[in-house]
Amino acid sequence: MKRKLNLLPLIIVAIIFFALNAYVLSGLGAINQSGLLSPIFWVFIIGLTFALFFAIQQMRLQGINKFFQIVSHAFLIVFASEIVFAFFLLLGDVYRLLIGLSTNFEPGGFHIASRSNYWVDFAFVMFCLTIALFAYGITQGKYAYRVIKHTLYFDDLPDSFDGFTLTQISDVHAGSFTNPKAVQKGIDMINAQKSDLFVFTGDLVNNASSEIVPYIGHFSQIKAPFGQFSVLGNHDYGDYIKWPSEADKIQNLNQLKVYHKELGFKLLLDEHVELHKNGEKIILAGIENWGIGFGERGDLNKALQNTDVNDFKILLSHDPSHWDAQVKNYPSKIQLSLAGHTHGMQFGIEAFGIKWSPVKYRYKHWAGIKTENGRYLNVNRGFGFLGFSGRIGIWPEITVIELKRK
Questions:
Q1: Domain that includes residue 29, residue range
Q2: Which of 102, 122, 140 is the last residue of a domain?
């Protein structure tokens, strides 16, 4: 039976969207009184909206192409900038209303002043700044790599590993890259850390294993004395595109595993290795992707099989929801877990003591260090980008962690 399309949500969204644009146009009209403003504005908005619908239909049939990227990003920039403009315009209108109400008790009665050109100009400046911010995020921000360093203290760290360093990156999403030179800058920054160990916590590609091929020469440059290790993320399984057959999907995953080897990464699939130094050891374990809503494939028990409860353990697990669900209360203590997945939604603010991103409403812990029950979790903000071809406020991250004994 054909599923009936519920038009009510679409109608409500359409009404809100066009009401927003009508309100924005009323503000722009205070700046420019030209009779051409209104028709030009509506032709642009309606044209962009229809272009987005067409691009979405094409994307469903052919996948993400250049046209979809251009139109979707243009729509996002315009929509976000309009919201900012409308917000500041509304503040001014509310203020005018309150002033008007206060005059209700004075001789002459209720009166609302006209909009202040200064306030409308300010709202328009914020509108322009928002566009500029998105333009920076798309052209520069997505490759603006940051090295973020943490020093973590443990009372059960083997003496020989006091001062041991590891570098973590996550979420490469190689299919999104368009600037090999910029990517190489990130690779150089990774190697410049000269860490003892390198780890990658999943999502090497968006969908197809072939996406990493142009960048094998880049990421294979990464070397560390104790090795380079990796795990799979939810995108690595090819779950988000349609394959000719299940066999093709399986072949894609198998090929991706081969590419991990060509990169010089030891892929940990529900298994662990021992890292030895001066007769002492720590455990490095990695599981297949386990994430609430993104496939619970990994087997933590299998990954830690034949390890001792007193061993010092580091776990690579792509999705931070795994830490809350299983790891932080696992009977055999896992001292440090390393994850990624969230990207910090590639949008937010981390400045002036503020740490906020919309992704916080989906993930309890979405970036940086979290400690609970005597155990640590680090969520890397991602090396690459996906969907929105840019980053604003949440920059691509290279994490360096130093292990110290208390």
A1: 7-140
A2: 140
Among 109, 140, 171, the domain-final residue is 140
**pLDDT beyond 50 at 160:** yes
Report DSSP state, residue 193: T
Per residue in 292-351, pLDDT (tens digit) is 999 899 999 999 999 999 999 999 999 999 999 999 999 999 999 999 999 999 999 998
- CATH classification of the domain holding 278: 3.60.21.10
The dihedrals phi and psi of 360, each to the nearest 5 degrees, come to -65, -20
164 inside domain: yes
- In the chain, the number of structural domains is 2
Alpha carbon distance 183, 242 (integer Å):
29
For 72-103, the pLDDT digits (tens) are 899 999 999 999 999 999 998 888 888 777 66
41 and 118 share one domain: yes
Which residue(s) pair with 15 in the sheet?
none
The reported pTM is 0.88
CB-facing half-sphere around the CA of 134: CA atoms within 13 A: 19
Give the span between the Cα atoms of 4 and 18, in whole angstroms. Answer: 25
* 403 close to 164: Cβ distance less than 8 angstroms: yes
